[in-house]
Write a structure and sequence with these properties.
The chain is an all-alpha fold. It has 5 helices and no strands.
Length: 110
């Protein structure tokens, strides 16, 4: 008994109390310590995000310039053609029998 205790505590079979399950989620999760490098990386990430927000708030082109730019590329004509194509497409007349025909697929003769 004493030999087993010594082997398990000091020998090569040294057991450590572990967190059950996934160590990154749950009530008893492992929370890594906050270091100086992690804080600096967080500040850098926040600075990049703030710079991105500034670029998004103040676009390079105004709305009028953007409209003329799209017109010069021909995107305006393509959009108009797409809208007109959708308007021309008309629904065909169908009967209730045609709608219910798909329900007869699983019906089998005995």
């Amino acid at each position: 008994m004493h030999l087993t205790t010594i082997l398990f505590t000091r020998g090569r079979f040294h057991f450590v109390k572990r967190i059950p399950g996934n160590i990154w989620i749950g009530k008893h999760r492992y929370v890594p310590p906050v270091t100086r490098n992690k804080k600096l990386q967080l500040w850098k990430d926040l600075a990049v995000e703030e710079e991105t927000m500034v670029y998004l708030k103040h676009p390079y082109l105004t709305e009028a310039q953007e409209w003329n730019h799209a017109k010069a590329l021909g995107k305006d004509d393509a959009r108009k053609a797409e809208i007109m194509k959708k308007r021309r497409k008309k629904l065909e007349h169908t009967t209730m029998e045609e709608h219910l025909l798909r329900l007869n697929i699983s019906r089998a003769w005995e």
